[in-house]
Automatic annotation (TrEMBL):
InterPro entries: SoxY, SoxY_sf, Sulphur_oxidation_SoxY, TAT_signal. This is Sulfur oxidation protein SoxY. It comes from the Bacteria. Pfam families: SoxY. Residues 44-153 form the Ig-like SoxY domain.
Length: 155
């Protein structure tokens, strides 16, 4: 009769398999990066065919992230946040991650300010880009490179 509980040996083999897969991805960081086509597709899904303009968006990121597992990021958009003129959404993306989409923050005029912060993982040195969708349909962007010394997405 077989026991449903995993034996100690099975647990160690499972952990070893996961660790080996992680080491494999670390040794092949190129496999863990989105292709330029995937990045462009992600941008199109975020903002459609609108051409983003520079300005209004500010990113707060470290120039160098010693550990890509937890990189602080802040974003703010200059907007009056009134019923007639407000930020609808801010999309963050990291073009060197396996999946470039990081997070989307949604706003309304009741938000008061278009500001948000979080932490994200960065697989390698790359650009972090923020796209701000405005209530009038316009889109603004800001980008900042971040040098990552230890990757956080298997790279």
């Amino acid at each position: 009769m077989m026991s449903k509980a995993m034996s100690r040996r099975q647990v160690f083999f499972s952990i070893g398999g996961v660790a080996a897969a992680g080491v494999g991805m670390t040794l092949m960081p190129g496999l863990a990066k989105a292709s330029p086509e995937e990045v462009q597709k992600a941008i199109k899904e975020m903002i459609g065919d609108t051409t983003p303009q520079e300005g209004k968006v500010s990113l707060d990121l470290p120039e160098i992230a010693e550990n890509g597992n937890t990189v602080p990021v802040g974003v703010s958009v200059d907007s009056p946040m009134t019923q007639d003129s407000y930020v609808k959404a801010v999309h963050l993306m990291a073009d060197g991650n396996p999946s470039p989409e990081v997070i989307t923050f949604k706003f309304t005029p009741q938000s008061g300010r278009a500001e948000a912060s979080t932490r994200m993982r960065l697989a390698q040195t790359q650009n972090v880009v923020a796209f701000a969708e405005m209530s009038d349909g316009s889109v603004y962007r800001a980008a900042q490179p971040v040098k990552v010394t230890i990757g956080g997405c298997g790279g």
